[in-house]
Amino acid sequence: MRTYRKTVTPALPVSLLSALTASLAVLSGFLILPSATCAAATTTSAATPAAAARMADQATFGPTSALIQHIQQVGLSAYVSEQINTPRFILPAAPSTTLSYCAGQYQCTVLPWYRDILTGNDQLRERVALALSEIFTVSFNDVTPAGLPVYQNILTANAFGNYKTLMKSVSLNPAMGEFLNMAWNVKPASGNIADENYAREFMQLMTLGTCRLNIQGICQTRGGVPIQVYTEDQVQALARALTGWQPVTGRGAQADMLDPMIAVEAQHDTDPKAIIDNVTLPAGQTAEEDLDDVISTIFADNNLPPFVSKLLIEHLVSSNPSPEYVARVATVFENDGTGVRGNLAAVISTILLDSEARAGDTRPQSTSGHLREPILWMTAVLRSLNGVPNSSSVANFNIMGQTLPKLGEASFRPVTVFSFYSPTYVVPASDTLGPEFELETSSGVIDELSVANAIVYNQFCSLVQVNLTSTGIFGQAAASGPGPLVDQIGSILLHSQVPAQMKSAIVSFITPMKTNDQIANAAYLVITSPQYKIIN
Questions:
Q1: DSSP 230-296
Q2: What DSSP string runs through 449-491?
Q3: Has residue 472 got a pLDDT over 90?
Q4: What is the DSSP letter of 22?
Q5: End-to-end CA gap in the chain
Q6: Between 279 and 41, whose confidence is greater?
Q7: 3-class secondary structure for 72-83?
Q8: What is the rounded average pLDDT of the residues 339-368?
Q9: Measured between alpha carbons, how far is 271 from 281 in angstroms, rounded to an integer?
């Protein structure tokens, strides 16, 4: 059985993160001189700039000036509907040979995805798929990259579909089968047990959690002890129910990654199995029948709506949603209003338009939101600063591939079944849930400062360029002075809600500089600030 143990650098305390930019003038000391230069709930029909920018931050891979204007014009609800109906990007199959512009099959495969999340139209679908990939985790460190496009396309195809369909599609995907050992899991010999890896993680991480929840997502207790959702015997029974599956052909690196796994009935355990919720799978069932019954039983469990709803809220809006917010979303998960359970389009719409999600549209919510994980920080910076590829080649989007591993989040290659961070991680020295903070290490912060500097000063100019000069997107505002410049940058990156003290510090620092230096330094100070790191 494959065993996963997570090795994590000690997390950066919140106090240190805040102190990093307590004085923006001090933070400016991290600036590195450029080493390269390059040439040039209920919403109304319209939205405020702040509301539009916040929606873009929650529902896409980063606001842009044009996107904010578009959301303002169509309104929040219409934008969400528009995104749900936007055709999806289908990740192309992995090339059979390494192409000239990439260093291996993995890089060749992931580059088109980087291009789509930075420039594509299906932003919300890809954001939801990213969240789903961190719930239904597969690491392509352990699985051949040929399986990556098929797996990613399952997530995007089902991002606005039904959770039950997603559960089955993932269960039969050979990449998941190889990663969590459902593939080649055969009926155990007398006195032995089947491989529990997939059975356990399927319930614990992907569908139910470990503690019996109420509709608000609150763990229930009996005598002060959390009520468990399942027992060890039930995990073993579920593992036996999931025996008998394998890829159509091959094994390991030679396995067929394109087609769903097939049942080999001779390897399936046909004894009765007492799984959760007092359900016993009868003797003599086929592998297909047992799998369908397992999916149906878990899908019907009362834990599924609050557990999944809370996870999706945490990824899109807030690490610490109120119980009432979770209940409102979970209620829609249970019934979308037409009697359908598990309708993700309705669930995602409810998450984004809920009054708690939209509260920050009119006032800053200092206690809400969530930390930008590295990929969301990197994409938002490039999109908000209007990063432009140096050519039409997909190779230029390897700016993501070059930087994300340094920041602790190599796309599609987590080191554990918990993805890149645990959904239950608590910020040190607090009782605040902050999953993404598990990636916020001292060394990672320094690496992020270096990446920010490289973007601002176009050290990635062979791939992507940003124009932070008087001829660029902030040039007109800069011509009116440091104050209007900071306001313009803040309107895109900080939802028009730049704290007065922060604005004063930046303006004071950049005022003596020439215009181009004012723009570059102001942008750098914003993208490296704690205020920017938290999407709220």
A1: --HHHHHHHHHHT-SEE-SS--GGGS--SS--EE-GGGS--S-EE-STT-EEPTT--HHHHHHHHHH
A2: HHHHHHHHTTTTTTTEE---STTSTTHHHHHT-HHHHHHHHHH
A3: yes
A4: S
A5: 41
A6: 279
A7: HHHCHHHHHHHH
A8: 91
A9: 8
pTM for the whole thing?
0.92
Sequence letter at residue 356: E
Burial 38-68 (b: 16+ CB within 10 A, else e): beeeebeeebbbbbbbbbbbbbbbbbbbebb
Segment 53-93, tens digit of pLDDT: 999 999 999 999 999 999 999 999 999 999 999 999 999 99
Instruction: Determine the Cα–Cα distance for residues 231 and 234; give it in Å rounded to an integer.
Output: 5
Distances in whole angstroms, Cα of residue 105 to Cα of each of 145, 154, 179, 268, 401: 6, 20, 18, 34, 13
Count of Cβ atoms closer than 10 Å to residue 484 Cβ:
15
The pLDDT of residue 145 is above 80 = yes
Residue 440: other Cβ atoms inside 10 A: 26
Are 448 and 528 a contacting pair, CB within 8 Å?
yes
Q: Give the residue among 262, 147, 275 at the shortest CA–CA distance from 202.
A: 275
Query: What's the confidence (pLDDT) of residue 46?
Result: 85
**Separation CA 351–CA 311 (nearest Å):** 11
The pLDDT of residue 97 is: 77
**Beta carbons within 8 Å of 136's beta carbon, 6+ residues apart:** 155, 166, 170, 176, 206
Place of tokens 């610490």: 320
Q: Beta strand pairing status for 262-263 and 388-389?
A: unpaired
pLDDT for 4: 36
The ranges assigned to domains in the chain are 14-56+368-535, 120-361
> Mean per-residue pLDDT for 218-222?
97
Torsion of CA 217, 222, 225, 231, to 10 degrees: -80
CB-based burial, 518-533: b 16+ in 10 Å, e otherwise: bbbbbbbbbbbbbbbb
> Residue 367 burial by CB count (10 A; 0-12/13-18/19+): exposed, middle or buried?
exposed
Strands 225-226 and 388-389: unpaired
User: What residue has token string 């799998």?
Assistant: 291
Question: Could you tell me if 289 and 272 are in contact, meaning their C-beta atoms sit under 8 angstroms apart?
Answer: no
Looking at the DSSP assignment, which residues form a beta bridge with residue 162? 343
CA torsion through residues 354, 358, 364, 368, sign? positive
DSSP string, 98-129: --TTSSSHHHHHHHHHHHHHHH-S-HHHHHHH
The SS3 assignment for 219 reads strand
Q: Which amino acid is at 421?
A: Y
Side chain identity, residue 194: A
What is the Cα–Cα distance from 153 to 139, expressed in whole angstroms? 15
* 3-class secondary structure, 23: coil
Burial 248-260 (b: 16+ CB within 10 A, else e): eeeeeeebbbeeb
Q: Cβ distance 307 to 208 under 8 Å? A: yes
